[in-house]
Amino acid sequence: MTVSYTLEVANARFAGFTKLLFRWKGSIYKLLYKEFLVFCFLYSLFSVIYRCILTTDQQELFERAARHCNKFAKLIPMSFVLGFYITQAFQRWWGQYTSFPLPDNLMMVVSGNVHGMDERGRLLRRTLMRYANLSSVLILRSISTRVRKRFPTLEHIVEAGFMTEEELKTLNHLYSDFNKYWMPLTWFANLASQAREEGRVKDDIALRLLMDELNNYRAKCSMLFHYDWISIPLVYTQVVTLAVYSFFAFCLIGRQFVKPEKADEYKVHVDLYIPIFTLLEFFFYAGWLKVGELIINPFGEDDDDFETNQLIDRNIQVSMLAVDDMHQHLPPLEKDKYWM
Amino acid sequence: MTVSYTLEVANARFAGFTKLLFRWKGSIYKLLYKEFLVFCFLYSLFSVIYRCILTTDQQELFERAARHCNKFAKLIPMSFVLGFYITQAFQRWWGQYTSFPLPDNLMMVVSGNVHGMDERGRLLRRTLMRYANLSSVLILRSISTRVRKRFPTLEHIVEAGFMTEEELKTLNHLYSDFNKYWMPLTWFANLASQAREEGRVKDDIALRLLMDELNNYRAKCSMLFHYDWISIPLVYTQVVTLAVYSFFAFCLIGRQFVKPEKADEYKVHVDLYIPIFTLLEFFFYAGWLKVGELIINPFGEDDDDFETNQLIDRNIQVSMLAVDDMHQHLPPLEKDKYWM
Amino acid sequence: MTVSYTLEVANARFAGFTKLLFRWKGSIYKLLYKEFLVFCFLYSLFSVIYRCILTTDQQELFERAARHCNKFAKLIPMSFVLGFYITQAFQRWWGQYTSFPLPDNLMMVVSGNVHGMDERGRLLRRTLMRYANLSSVLILRSISTRVRKRFPTLEHIVEAGFMTEEELKTLNHLYSDFNKYWMPLTWFANLASQAREEGRVKDDIALRLLMDELNNYRAKCSMLFHYDWISIPLVYTQVVTLAVYSFFAFCLIGRQFVKPEKADEYKVHVDLYIPIFTLLEFFFYAGWLKVGELIINPFGEDDDDFETNQLIDRNIQVSMLAVDDMHQHLPPLEKDKYWM
Amino acid sequence: MTVSYTLEVANARFAGFTKLLFRWKGSIYKLLYKEFLVFCFLYSLFSVIYRCILTTDQQELFERAARHCNKFAKLIPMSFVLGFYITQAFQRWWGQYTSFPLPDNLMMVVSGNVHGMDERGRLLRRTLMRYANLSSVLILRSISTRVRKRFPTLEHIVEAGFMTEEELKTLNHLYSDFNKYWMPLTWFANLASQAREEGRVKDDIALRLLMDELNNYRAKCSMLFHYDWISIPLVYTQVVTLAVYSFFAFCLIGRQFVKPEKADEYKVHVDLYIPIFTLLEFFFYAGWLKVGELIINPFGEDDDDFETNQLIDRNIQVSMLAVDDMHQHLPPLEKDKYWM
Amino acid sequence: MTVSYTLEVANARFAGFTKLLFRWKGSIYKLLYKEFLVFCFLYSLFSVIYRCILTTDQQELFERAARHCNKFAKLIPMSFVLGFYITQAFQRWWGQYTSFPLPDNLMMVVSGNVHGMDERGRLLRRTLMRYANLSSVLILRSISTRVRKRFPTLEHIVEAGFMTEEELKTLNHLYSDFNKYWMPLTWFANLASQAREEGRVKDDIALRLLMDELNNYRAKCSMLFHYDWISIPLVYTQVVTLAVYSFFAFCLIGRQFVKPEKADEYKVHVDLYIPIFTLLEFFFYAGWLKVGELIINPFGEDDDDFETNQLIDRNIQVSMLAVDDMHQHLPPLEKDKYWM
C-alpha cells in the first residue's frame, strides 16, 4: 500500500520529522537492510584479513592501497549526479501518477447526458463505463506487475466482469502487433455515436462532450503506455549506479582503520573497529539511490508503489454507482439554511 | 493564518529583508526554538562531562573522537540533498494550493446561465452551488486537520448548512469504500441536466458550459485528494532527515572546544565555550529542514498553512452572493466618462 | 519603469554584457550602495579598533577570533541556498507577470460578437469592457503599492472613470469579508446574458465564447490574488537572509588583515587595508539576495517592478478603442500584391 | 529498439539496479568502449614514454608537469556543468517524445463522426487517416535518419502506400521553400469540410471536433519540426564537451604514477600501473556526456532512440483498423456481471 | 542562420561530440575569440612587467599579491551562479521560440471554413491571413533587430505587401501610446464576423473556431511582446557578469607563474609562460557566460538567433498557399493500397 504519512506531519511541531524515522513499512531500513548487511560483511572480511592474516609487509601494502582508495573516492561526485538523477526520476514518477486514468469525469458526463431510466438506457450507460474501465485494465496489465498477477490472461478479465465473452472474441479477432488497449475506447466512441442516433444522447453538444472526455481518458492511457515504453535512458541509470557502487567498493578498503601514515599521528589515531561514519554514508547515499529505484517504476509491488488493483476496483465501483444508482436519483431540493 | 509579508518588502529598499528577521509569527524562531534548546542542552552536557568529569586519559580519548567526528561530519552533503528535496516539496506545495477548488468560475456560469427570478430558479441556483461547496468540504475534511476539527462528523456539516438531512441520508445510503466527495458533483450534473429539461438552462451550449466548469472543479478536488494520498516517498524524507540529524549528532561531539592536537597550536586556540558558529549552522540547516516540514503538508495548523476554514466560509458566501443576490441585479447602465 | 535591456544585448558581440555593468537605473549599485556603505563603515571601525586601540594582548585575542571566524564562515553554503531560493522566487515572479489580466482577448471577442452600431450597442460593449477593467483595478489596488497610491479610495476609481457612482453604491451594498474584485465580472456575465436575450449577441455559441474568455480573465485576476496571499513561506526567506547576513557579520572580523599566525608567514603577508575581495564577495552575494528581494514582490515601486499604472491605462485605452472605434470599422478590402 | 528496463526494476528489491549493470544492449559499455580503448592506449603511451624512454632529467620535468596538470584538472567543474546541461537535454528529449504525433484521438473521432458503411464512407474515413499518417511520415523523414533510410525519396512513400501517385503530383506541383508536411493536413481539413457538405459528417459540432483534433495533430508535427530546427545552442554543447575533453586530456599526464615529490613520501607511494580510479572517472564523466549525446537527438539509430519506423507502422495499422474494420462494428451489448 | 547540428550527432557513435568542436559558424571560438585575445594580451602585459620591469623588491610584492589573488579567486562560486542563471535564461529562450506566432492552425481553419471559390471568397481568405501575418510583422519589428532593419518604417511593410495603403492610414489614424500589433487582429475578428453574416462562414461553430484560433494566435504575439518587455532583472545579469569578470581580473595577476613561496618548492616549480589551464578556464567560464548572452535575446543577429525574416516569408507564403491555391483543391480520392 502507498505509505501516506503527511497527516502525521501536518503540523511542523517539535521534532516533527523524527517520528518518521521510526517506521518500518516503506522505510529506508526495510529497503536497504540487505545491502547494508552485505556491505558490513564485506567490510569485516577485509578488516579481519588486514588485521589477522596479512604479514607486516602485506599490511603496509594494504595501508597504501587504503590511503589511495580513500583519496580518490572523494573525487566521485555522487551527490551531484544523484541529485539531478533523482529529480528527473521524481518528475516522471509524479507524471505517471497524474496520468493514471480515472473515470470520474467520464462517468459524470455519461450520467448527465445519456438518458433513459429503462433497461436500454441503463445498459448503454453501464456498457460505456465498462468499456472505459476495460481499457484501463488492459493498459495496466501491461505495465503493472500487480495487475498482471491478478489478470494473468484475458480470460481472467472476463471472469472479473470487465469484459464479456463476446467482447473477448471480437478483441482477439482484431489483429494488431501492438497493445490493444485503445479498442474498447473505439467501441465507446461508436456506441456513443449510436446512442446519439437513438436519441438517448439528446443533442450534438452532449455527444461532443462525451467525445472530449473520452479523448482525455484515452490520452491518459496512452501517456501511461509511453511512460512505460520510454524509460529514462539505461545509460543514465547505469552511470549513476556505477558511481554509487564504485564509491562504496573503494570505501571497503579505503575506510579501514589502518595504521596512520606518520609516526606522530599515532597519538591522535582512532581505531573504532566499526566505521560508523562510513555506514551512515552508506545509508545516506545508497538510500538516495534506492529512492530512484523505488520511483523509477511506481507500478511494481513495493510498499510505496501505486495500488493499481485497489484503484481498478474503486474505478469500476464508482463508475457503476454514478451512472446507474445515482442517475437522476436526486435527494429532494430544499431551501438551504441561509435562504432569505 | 497564512503569514503574508510581501507587501512589507514590495520595494527593495535599504536592508529590505532585515525587518523580516524580527518577526515571531510564522518565523523560524518559533518553529525551531524547542529543537534549539534541546541541542544546546545536549551540547552543554557533553561539554561539562568533557571539562569536569573525565580523567585526562579519557579526555584525550574524547578529543580524538571529537576530531574524528568533525572530520567526517564534513562528508555529509546536506546542502545538496536539502536543496533538491526542498525544491520538490515546494513545487508540490504550490501545486496543492493551486488545486484548491474555488467556486468562482462555477458560480459565474450558474449565475449567467440558470435563469428564473422565482423561487424555483433561486432554489436551483443555490442548490447547485451548495452541492459544489459540499463537495469541497467533504474532500477537505479528509485532508485538513483544521477542517476535520471543525466538522468531526457529517452531522456537523449538516448543521453548518452545507447539506440537508435528506442529502446526508442519500449519501450514507450509497456504499463506497472510498471517499465520496464526488457524489454531490454527480447530483450537480444530474440537477443541471434536469434544469435543462425544465428550460431553466436555455440551450445545450449553456449546459455544456456548466458541465465543463463542473469537470474543472471536480478535477481540482480530485487533484487535492491525490496530493494527499500520494506523498513524497517516505524513503526520500527519511534520507534527508537522517542526513541532517546525524550531522548535528556528530556536531555535539565534534564541535566541542577540545584541546588542540599539536603543542604549537595552543597559542592560536580559541575556547569560546558557546559554539556560536555551530549554533548558526543549526539554525540554518535545521531551519531549512523545517521549511520542508512546513510545506510538505500545507493543510495542517501551522502559522503558514492554508486557511482552509476561512476559505470554505468565503466560498459559500460568495457563491450565494453571486447566484442569488447578484443574479440579474445590475447597476443601471450609464455612459462612461470618456464617451464621445 | 521596468528596465528593459535585451535590445542592447541582442547580438552576442565583443564584451556584450560589459555595457550592462555601466548602468545606474535598476542596477545592482543603486540597489546595494547603502548596504555597501554600512558594511564598509563597520569593517573600518573594527579595523581601526584592532590596529589603533587594542593592546598587544587584546590584539592577539582579536587575531584568534578573526582566524576562527574566517574558518567557519566558509561552512555557510550560501551559494547553494541562494541558488535554489532565487530560482523559486524567479518562477513565481514570471508566474505573476503572466497572470496579469490583459483584456485583449476579451475585447476582441466583445468587438466581434456584441453587435449594434447604435447607442445601446456601444453602451453594452463599452460597459462590458469597463467592468473587466474595473475588476483588474480592484485586484491590483490590493496588491500593488503603486496602484494603491493612485487610488487610495474607491471614490478615486469612480473619478478616474472606471466605475459609476451607482456601481460604487451597489458594490458597497453587497457584503463580503473578502476582496470584491469578482463582482464586476459577475455583472459582466449577467450583462452578456442580457445582451443575448436582446439579440445583441446573436447566438449561444457567441455567448459561450464571451463566457469562456470571461473565465480566463477571472482566473488571472484570481491567480494574482493568490500569489499575493500565499507568499513563499516566511521561514524560507528568513533562513536565506540569516545565512547571508551572518556570513558577512563574520567577515567583518574574519577578513581583517591580522598579523599572520606563524613567523615564517610574515614575509608573504599582504596587508591591503581595503579588503577588495571581501567587498567583491559582498557585492556578489548580497547582490544575489537583492535579486530575491526585488522579484519577491514585483508590484512595488522598484525600478524593475511591473508598471501596473501604465498597464491599467493601456488596458482601458485599447479596450475602448477595440470595442468602439474599431467595431465594424474595417479598411476597405483590396486585392493584395501577390494576387494572381 | 528502445531499451525498456523498468519492468526488471519494478520492485526495489535487494541490489535492484545491480542487474542493470550487466547488460550490453543500450549500455554505457557499448556506447563508450571505443573511447575507453583510445583513452587507455594514450595513457599507456605516455606511461611507457615516461618510464622507459625519458632520461632522468626529462622524467623530472614530466613529473612537474604531471603534478601541475593534476592540480588544475580539479578546477574544471565538470559535474556542475554536466548536471545542468543533461537536465536541459533531458527535458527536450521527453518533450520530443511527447510531441510524437499519434493518430489515436483523430482516428477515434473519425470513426465516430464520419458516417456511412458504403464504399464512399470507407473511402472518406481511410483517406482522412491516410492524410494524417502521410503528414507524420513527411515530417519524420526530415528529422529521423531511420525514416530517411526507409524512404529515401517521396516515391518510396508512394510505394509504401501512404500516398497515391496523384497526391505526389499535387504535392510536387505546389511550390514552397519549406517542409511541406502540413499539406496533407490541409487536404484533411478540406476533405472533412466536403464530407460535412455531403452529410457524411452529420453536424457542425462533429466537424468542429474533427478540426480540433486535426489542429492538435498538426501542432505536434510542427513541434517536432521545431525541436529539430532549433537545437540547444551549439555554443553550450561545445562548452560542455570542451570541459570534459580537456579534463581527460590533462588526466593523461596528471594521473600518471610519477615518483613522489618528497623523499619521505616514497614509503607511501603506490604505483598501480593501471589507473583504475581514473578509468572509473572516465567511465563516469564520459558516460554522463554520452547520455547527452544519446538524448540530444532521439531520432537517430542508437539502441535507445525512438523506434520511429515501428511507430509509423503501428500508426497506419491502428488507424485503418479503427476507422474501417471497427467502424460501427460493436460486440453485442450484454448485461454485465454486476447488473442488478 | 540558426545552427542546426543535431542530425550530425543523431547517433551516439565514437567521439560523437568531437566533430562539433571543429566548427566555426555559431561556435564558441567565433563568439569568444576577441575577448580571448584581450585576456591574453593583458596577461602577457602583466607577465612582462613582472618578469622584466619590476625590481626584486617590487617582484616580491607582486608575488604576494598574486598569491593573495589566487587564493580569493577560488571563493567566487561562478559555476553555481552561472548554472542557475543559464538554466533560467534557457527556459525563457525556449519559451520565446514556442511563442513565435505561426499561422498554420489559423490558415487550416480559414481554408476549411471560409467558403467560396469566387473572387470575394478568395479576397476574404487572403485578407484574413494577411491581417494575421501583418500582426506578427508588427510585433516582430519591435523586438527583432533583423526585422527592424528589413522594415525600418511602416511604409516598408506596405511595400512588402503585408499591408495596403488604406490600412496604413487607418492604423495611423487610431491613436494608442502602445504597440498596435493587435489592431489587424481586431480587423480579423470583425471581418470574420462579417463573413458569417454574408454566409461565407456557414455556421456559428465555424465562426467560433475562427475566433478561438485567432485568440491563440494573438496570445502568442502578446507573449512575445511581454518576453521582450520584461527581461530577466538587470540586477541578476549584473551579478553574474560581475562574478565572471572579477574572477578573470584576479586571474590576470593570481595565475602568473611567480616564484614559489618556499625554497624547497623550487624544484617542483613549473614555469609554463603560457597559462594553458587558465586559458582553458577562460574558454570554459566565459563561454558559459556567452551562452547566456546568446540566448538572452534570441531575436538579434547572432549565428544562433532565430531567423525571423525567413520565418516571416515562410508564414506569408504558406498562408496564401493554404487558403488560396489549396482551397478545395483536393487530389482525387482513390482506394489505398491496403483496401480490402
Write the layout of secondary structure elements.
5 copies of one chain form a homopentamer.
Chain A: H1 28-53, H2 56-73, H3 78-98, H4 104-113, H5 119-143, H6 145-150, H7 154-159, H8 165-173, H9 183-198, H10 204-229, H11 234-254, H12 276-296, H13 308-325
Helix pairs in contact in A: 1-12, 2-11, 3-11, 3-12, 4-10, 4-13, 5-9, 5-10, 5-13, 9-10, 11-12
How would you describe this structure to a colleague?
The structure is a homopentamer of 340-residue chains. The first copy, chain A, is mainly α and 340 residues long. Helix content of chain A is 66%, strand content 0%. Chain A is built from 13 helices and no strands. Chain A has helices spanning 28-53, 56-73, 78-98, 104-113, 119-143, 145-150, 154-159, 165-173, 183-198, 204-229, 234-254, 276-296, 308-325. The relative contact order of chain A is 0.17. The model of chain A has no long low-confidence stretch (mean pLDDT 85). Chains A and D meet through α1, α2, α3, α5 and α8 of A and α3, α4, α10, α12 and α13 of D.
